[in-house]
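Memo to structure team: turn this sequence into structure tokens by end of day. - J.P.
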Amino acid sequence: MSGVPGHPPVEGASAAAQAAAAAVAPGRPIVGLRAVDTGTRGQAWLIAFEGPAFLCLDDAGRPVASRMRACDVAQAALAAEIVEEALDAAALRAMTDAADGLAAAAAGVPPAAVEALSRAADHARALAEWREAPERTEASLIALDAATSLQERAHAAYATFVSLTDPLADRQGDLDADVLAALVAAEEAAAAAGLGASLGAMMGEGMAGIAAAADEIAALHVTPLR
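Reply from structure team:
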């Protein structure tokens, strides 16, 4: 990741926070506003203006004065963007449908593999519900940690499925056509849902970029930071 982030959504934003932002930076069009909970020091708000320019408000609607606090809030908002972009609810639900399809046509597939894919599907379903929940309008580090942990379990279960079904590649000709099609569908759906990769590892690799982008946001803050 480089540069400033995409604008956070305005939907569901606090009218009071919007009013406070407009009072601090009159005449600047607000293009995005997001509630942020870093787990410490209460809720904050990250506002994006045309320009680009940014403003971080505390839970009382006052501009933050600390550059460190502004960076913490920006990093939480950026992390939320990464997680939410990685977790597509429709793709996750499609993966659960593909797992059900394989379970229904499982002749010749090791039962342990079917069970592992079922576990991955259960986690994927929970992730889809997490992604679609109304509280996702707030970028909460605690919630992001929970989602990352859930995705790690889905990824691990899917990796088990892959290891158990790899030997089937050498005897595809012996498999029923419906079973083979169900296996391919499950693999494609899991890939589309991002279960082939570790979200935790991706977040770890992206932390340097997140920190750099947060610094850029702080540099574009409309009020002085110290």
